[in-house]
Design a protein that fits this description.
Layout: H1 2-20, H2 46-58, H3 67-126, H4 134-160, H5 162-184, H6 194-221
Helix pairs in contact: 1-2, 1-6, 3-4, 3-5, 3-6, 5-6
Length: about 230
Amino acid sequence: RTVTGVQTCALPILRSARFNALLGGAWHRTNIPSHLVTYGNPATTWMHWYARAVERYVGLPKVTVDAAYLSACKALLQEALIGGQEIYHRRNIERLEPVDHRLHWLGEWCFIATFFVCLAHLSEHFLGAHEGSSIGRWLTFYAAIFPALGAALAAIRSQGEFHRLIQRSRAMSEELERLRRSVAQVPTRPNELHSRELQQLIEQTTRQMYNEGLDWRVVFQDRPLVLPA
């Protein structure tokens, strides 16, 4: 539980703090919806306190926010933060889609095979074949093993939440693409408040990342592997 708490609470804050601090942004307190309170609130853990303490200790960069600095912040946000997340979600989709498709396809074929095995078993019975023949025993075996295998494949697909994770990565990819376009449109002219616009986009991006981490936490806390799994 400690490792899970660190991954879903402290590490996302520390990772996001590198970008939030560039333009004086502050991390907002995590708001957990009421229907998720039973899963625990990461903001009340010691890991969250420690991450915030590190963020306060590091402080803000001592720089002049000019056109060159804003351009550097834009490039860092687009390449390191948004770009890195886009690569992750794209690879996540490419990795999970084949797994989800194969499990679904194999499960369907197991039940189709069961149907044909049962037809063969009935045909053997009506044709008057001997009940204890080797063919009958094999048909009985396959009539039992194919549904069990199909059910096991369906359970693996459900437990792994492959379809849900694919849909979430697609949604995150679309949102990150929107944020990338918004960041690209922020001017970097000096003596104007463009740093505020860029900081708001940084906070939106890091908030999306943190909310995704909370969703991971809920999904896998709600799907513990217990007997007879």
